[in-house]
Design brief:
heterodimer; A: 264 residues; alpha/beta; Rossmann fold; two-stranded antiparallel ribbon; 10 helices; B: 206 residues; alpha+beta; Nonspecific Lipid-transfer Protein, Chain A; 2 domains; five-stranded mixed beta sheet; 7 helices
Chain lengths: 264, 206
């Protein structure tokens, strides 16, 4: 495995040119190995995922997720796919909002995360209209035109082929349905950006070491955020697979962005 | 930090904590399961939805939904909101143009009923943590302090009133103000009478 630092554009060239390698954090790895490496990270962090999210974001991730739900326009009776749904923060709320006539699918490629999410939701009494599916975002095992809403919170940057995943989501959305992608992005302010970089590369891995006894996974988190496409690039990726009326909203100075696109 | 989600999260937590303390109100809310009350506040341009299931979810919507059999959309101003607690006032507010409702009005009425029936026995809540005796004494003490404060407030206002009106004569006594008002009214009546008499005489002259 070659170890190097590269920019998102450079890594894109490598992806499109050689079709062999992709980034895993700042490292270049064989495309076929990225999924298992990401799986390793999430297997390792699953048990303490919620606690670490609260610690790392000082609870603000809950507000970002609330904002995502506010923008979902979800109604009783609708079908929702919470992709890379992890420990089910969004799915729990969607379950109440769609009611007994609606349906929520919590999907994640990682079995450990899905298990934690399923146990958490069941402990909370969220049952009846939620199904749990282990699925790869690049090849979703659902019929065409099936969901009214697809959400993906902090998952897209871990997907090997993002364009393929967006196309797969586009396929399973009903006409009129919307996709919401909540993901780390690029801070719009230079001072914030520098502070955020320092926090990500110094505090986060140390926090991961102390709390979860896993420095590498949180080092990967910081690196994978830097390798993720910026706001405008992701918006154009939405448009390239067919989404319309695409826009994004920067949250907390662009540390996180909520991208939205519709299938008509 | 996203401010609106922070406010809706606080409102949601508070509403659900309060409802959890009153089993009757929670029972009342069950009748509204699956319904939504959307409050469109025109003065602050904010649309808030209360989605009711086994709990209340508060959403800040980015678009105003249409009212239907499971959704009631209430369009009003922030200042009118406290009046919505009284279900009997809804019709009056609509007539006065203070309130526009689309969709199922019964949802707003039933929700208002749940709010009115909310009764939390705080002494019992405290007793669950401290035991009955401590809770009883704590509330008796709080009641007695409250009564003493009210008495002190009344007495202070009487003393201050007396000092201002009788001793320092900085303000007029209530009776003097009433007498003055009566005199002003009488003077106004006399002036109006004189004015009409003058105009009658002027018309006779011409």
């Amino acid at each position: 495995m070659q170890e190097q630092q590269s920019s998102p554009s450079a890594s894109k060239q490598i992806e499109s040119g050689a079709e062999q390698s992709t980034h895993f954090g700042f490292r270049q790895v064989e495309r076929s190995k990225k999924a298992s490496l990401v799986a390793g990270v999430f297997d390792s962090v699953a048990a303490k995922y919620d606690m670490m999210n609260d610690l790392m974001s000082m609870g603000v991730h809950r507000l970002w997720k609330r904002y995502t739900i506010d923008c979902s326009g979800i109604k009783p009776g609708q079908k929702v796919l919470d992709l890379a749904g992890g420990t089910g923060d969004l799915a729990a709320k969607f379950s109440r909002l769609v009611g007994t006539t609606g349906h929520v699918v919590l999907a994640d490629i990682n079995h450990s995360m899905l298990s934690v999410g399923r146990d958490k939701l069941r402990d909370k009494g969220v049952v009846g209209n939620v199904d749990y599916v282990q699925a790869n975002a690049e090849a979703l095992p659902f019929p065409d035109n099936h969901f009214d809403l697809v959400t993906m919170a902090f998952g897209l940057r871990n997907v090997t082929d993002k364009d393929k995943a967006l196309a797969s989501i586009f396929r399973v959305l009903k006409p009129g349905g919307r996709l919401l992608v909540l993901e780390f992005s690029k801070p719009t302010n230079e001072v914030l950006s520098k502070t955020y970089d320092w926090y990500s590369f110094n505090i986060l891995p140390t926090m991961g070491q102390i709390v979860a006894n896993d420095k590498e996974s949180y080092q990967y988190l910081a690196e994978s955020i830097r390798m993720h496409p910026d706001q405008d690039t992701l918006k154009s990726m939405f448009e390239n697979v067919g989404f319309e009326r695409c826009d994004y909203q920067n949250l907390t100075g662009g540390i996180v962005a909520l991208h939205r696109g519709y299938k008509f | 930090m996203p401010t609106v989600p922070l406010l809706t999260a606080a409102a949601e937590t508070l509403a659900n904590k309060l409802l959890a303390l009153d089993p009757d109100a929670r029972q009342g809310l069950k009748r509204l399961q699956g319904k939504r009350l959307v409050i469109n506040l025109t003065d602050i341009k904010q649309c808030i939805a209360l989605a009711i299931s086994e709990q209340i979810d508060v959403l800040a919507l980015d678009a105003l939904p249409d009212g239907d059999e499971s959704t009631c959309v209430v369009t009003t101003r922030l200042a009118v909101l406290p009046k919505l607690k009284e279900a009997s006032q809804l019709t009056q507010l609509i007539k006065a143009g203070e309130l526009e409702v689309s969709g199922e009005l019964a949802i707003a009425q039933q929700f208002s009923g749940v709010l009115n029936s909310l009764h939390i026995d705080w002494e019992e809540q405290l007793a669950q943590h401290t035991g009955d005796v401590v809770a009883y004494h704590a509330f008796s003490f709080a009641r007695s302090v409250g009564q003493q404060l009210a008495r002190f407030g009344n007495k202070s206002s009487l003393i201050l009133g007396s000092a201002l009106t009788d001793e320092k004569q900085l303000a007029a006594h209530k009776l003097a103000v009433m007498h003055f008002s009566d005199e002003v009214s009488r003077l106004r009546d006399d002036a109006e009478r004189l004015e009409s008499r003058l105009s009658r005489l002027e018309s006779k002259q011409s």
